[in-house]
Fold this protein.
Amino acid sequence: MAEPHRIVIVGTGLAGASTAGSLRERGYPGEITLIGRDPNRPYELPALSKGILLGDTDEPDWVHEDDFYGDIALRTGTTVTELRLGERAVLDDQGGTHPYDRLVLATGSQPRRLPIPGADLANLHTLRTLEDSLTLRAELTADARVVIVGAGWIGCEVAAAARKHGATVHVVEPLPLPLHRTLGPRIGEFFRDVHAAEGVTWHLGVGVAEFTGTEGVVTGVRLADGTTLDADVVVVGVGASPRVELAEAAGLEIAETGGVAVDATLRTSAPDVFAIGDIAAHLHPRYGKRVRVEHWANAKDQGTTVAGSLIGAAEPYSSSPYFFSDQYDLGLEVRGLFDPELDELVIRGDIAAREFIAFWTREGRVQGAMNVNSWDDGDALQALVDKQSTVSADDLRTGSLADLA
């Protein structure tokens, strides 16, 4: 495959900017155009629900310094409106046409919204951009009554930030526990109890029927059981949907599970088009099935890998999923791809003391691991997950993890 002269990247998030950076690091001398709707230069998302929302910083972690883009055509505040694959061109809402030899789609995700009455009221927030985070932080005051809908990672991190600012916090979750689908009931109970100890009021096993308001501003949340929660601020954190509209309209294959179908090298059904990050339904060589991951590490590492594929290296992406979170005095990392309904949970350490490691195993093979306030064994945990090592539950509880890895 001849080296391309022009590469266009649609999406100015971490995935797209990592692709551009890796291309230059690999010595690619051709044209790079990076186009995205966000008005800011590329930044990473984790700080939006952590440091910025907590008030520890006013800025995200920028992917690159501003002067990095000197030889890259960075088009911020620009929305791509059409992909013309037959012409190898991208059209934008500014009237621009961008021809390419290779195209990378890194369009990311958008927050899901609840299709219920009152969903268009003011002070009803989602969290996806720097502006979202700064606006929400200004409303997390000591006298604010905050209702968070959804107890996934975003909901839990927003709850922790709101409590730090002294707000009264209620969290509504239709499942029986926070993070129930992600981590299972035992670990869900742990997070429920941590937040309750910090003053969060839970409404579990119940959905939202309506957002109520006065003069266009939200004033309450009515639950399916008839309970009404007074609210000055409402945050909806019920997951995100991949932005696949451009790809779908262009005729690219969309996976049954959602996302743009890509092979192990992140190539789509069109030979010169690649998809990465949140939208990529990736045929993972380790798991033997399509995997779509919406986490920070996936965006960063797929951007690095696809750069090689763009210039002929055809590198498979085989990294295990990785995620981290900070809540109150908890710091944690999650590795691997596991199903808490199918896999056996093994706890190492003292969960009551908030310092432990959780393993998920299937037929004795380590599928995933989460370390909570435990930082000495990261490399061993990564190796156990990557190798899907066969280890007994007793050894995981008490053995030397370095030796087991």
